[in-house]
Write a structure and sequence with these properties.
Layout (H helix, E strand, L loop, with lengths): L3 H6 L3 E5 L3 E6 L3 E7 L2 E4 L5 E4 L1 H5 L8 E4 L2 E2 L2 E2 L2 H15 L8 E6 L5 H13 L4 E6 H8 L10 E6 L4 E7 L2 E8 L3 H16 L1 E2 L2 H11 L10 E8 L5 E7 H7 L1 H16 L3 H10 L1 E4 L8 H9 L3 E3 L6 H11 L1 H4 L7
Parallel strand pairs: 1-9, 9-10, 11-17, 17-18
Antiparallel strand pairs: 1-2, 2-3, 4-5, 4-6, 7-8, 11-12, 12-13, 14-15, 15-16
């Protein structure tokens, strides 16, 4: 438990430390930071030159003296040193008084290992946290959409982020079954990059792939189908090139990662105890996370499972809002935090 004396002065914070984006909720103030999980550094001394939105704008456009790094991979810290720099920067944005160290709650994938938990704790402490608690992302997502996680009933949530898809059945303040697959938004972007290379000999960057996914990507046929212009480098001629692509083509490109999400949901349903499965049949499944915004994904999952599927309001912020709920009512929800 935090020391009462410090709590008077500290603005305790909740962090959704995502592969694609980092969001920070400040107790009593709401969401104060919403930035890409990207850091640009000087290669000579590894000092940061830009963090967040500024760094993301540099992706694919840097010279040899600057390297753009995404310190998170598959929902966990991949580069300890750069992650610490990024976390410290975001904490300072919301916590001006550096003499008082805040309590921090960080979201982690449900399949996180003990060593990965230790890295996240250490990085957060080095970045200025007084004490660090961890919460599983699907639990936080369920709380963010106001599911009754402490009640004796089955609540199912599918959180599709940048690096992982987290699927969990929650009851009595704990995760009964969970399935964590490292296939999500990033793998969808990579599938589009490979499709463009294979079919058009066109090399595109991560940002262009994400733009294509968000603009015309889909999991089901659209009415009407969409088109857009994709720009990149011709791999044969070596010159800039622009081509028109359709939503049908991108749907084919995304077929494999979308099928992997469908299979993960089926696996999770097969592991669910029958009493809780009955609750899910009546109450449905909630989709959260940025990946859930893929056009037609909710319809595809509905057809594949014959269950009610609901897309959360503002799915990008569900996880951090749920973590903020733990901050605001710590005594009530302390039991949902991870141990170990």
């Amino acid at each position: 438990m935090p020391f009462p004396f410090f709590s008077v002065f500290a603005n305790d914070i909740a962090i959704d430390l995502g592969t694609a984006n980092t969001l920070i909720y400040v107790k009593g103030k709401g969401i104060m930071v919403r930035e890409p999980s990207v850091v640009a550094i000087r290669t000579s001394d590894r000092k940061p030159v830009a963090i967040g939105h500024e760094a993301r704008a540099m992706m694919g456009k840097t010279h040899g003296d600057i390297q753009v790094i995404r310190p998170m991979k598959d929902g966990v810290i991949d580069d300890d040193e750069i992650a610490e720099v990024m976390i410290r920067n975001f904490i300072r944005k919301v916590h001006k008084n550096r003499l008082v160290r805040p309590m921090v709650i960080v979201c982690v994938p449900s399949g996180v290992t003990k060593s990965e938990m230790r890295i996240i704790r250490n990085s957060s402490e080095q970045a200025g946290a007084r004490e660090v608690h961890l919460i599983a992302e699907p639990m936080a997502a369920a709380m963010g959409v106001d599911l009754p996680v402490l009640e004796p009933m089955g609540n199912m949530v599918v959180d599709i982020g940048g690096g992982t898809t987290e699927i969990a059945v929650i009851s009595l303040g704990g995760i009964v079954t969970d399935t964590s697959v490292r296939i999500a938004g990033d793998e969808m972007d990579e599938a589009i990059i490979q499709f463009m290379r294979r079919n058009y000999n066109l090399l595109i960057g991560e940002r262009t792939a994400e733009e294509i996914k968000c603009t015309i990507g889909s999991a089901m046929p659209l009415e009407p189908e969409l088109t857009m212009i994709a720009k990149g480098r011709d791999l044969i001629a070596g010159i800039p090139k622009a081509i028109e692509i359709s939503s049908e083509e991108i749907r084919d490109a995304l077929a494999e990662p979308v099928s992997a999400v469908v299979d993960a949901l089926r696996t999770s349903l097969e592991k669910t105890p029958p009493e809780l499965a009955a609750d899910i049949r009546d109450r449905g499944i909630i989709l959260t996370g940025g990946g859930s915004l893929l056009k037609g994904l909710d319809r595809r999952l509905r057809e594949e499972t014959n269950l009610p599927i609901f897309l959360a309001d503002d799915p990008l912020t569900c996880v951090v809002r749920g973590t903020g709920k733990v901050l605001d009512e710590f005594d009530t929800y302390e039991k949902v935090l991870l141990r170990g």
